[in-house]
Amino acid sequence: MHANESRNAPALDRRDWFKRSGLFVAGLGAASALALPARSFAASTSAQGDVDMLNVALGLEYQAIAAYQVGAESGLLQKPVLAVAVQFQGQHKAHAGILQATIRKLGGTPVEAKQPAAYDFPTDRLKNQADVLRFAAGLEKGAASAYLGTVPQFHERALAKAAASILGDESMHWAVLLQALGENPVPAAFIG
Length: 192
Known about the structure:
The protein is mainly alpha-helical. It has helices at about 5-20, 20-40, 45-75, 80-105, 130-150, 155-180. α2 packs antiparallel against α3 (about 45-75) and α2 runs parallel beside α5. The radius of gyration is 17 Å and the shape is globular. The protein starts with a helix and ends in a 12-residue tail after the last helix.
């Protein structure tokens, strides 16, 4: 790529992003709605505060599992993309499992998964593979941002390390989905 092309590419991607961002924003909004309670646990000073933040994270994982199920059952994903979606869903299930076990170990009670319909996903707006990928990318970005906000808040530093590990995985999911959409997989130097 020439210097001029690389300088112009982000601006074009950004404009294109805003034109096609409806489902991405819907996904991000859904993830952010679950992440909002995490902000109220600022500077956890107790095991209960850690449990509360872990339960918010667990809710995000349940949401991701349900979203990938909707995508997988939509019939809109080509086989290779479906395989990646199922892999990502499996990773979210692994996150949920470790979060559940950790919450119990800390003496808490894990939140229950909602029924998929309770998430109010914009399924009526999923018309093709790109729509599904854009929606999933919004959820992954929201999850990464939520984990980023909670990592420094944990009372137990080992929990911060574990949450940072999941944050890395969510960020990789987001990047892969953006790449699959033909968009810049790393649109900024920071997430937030």
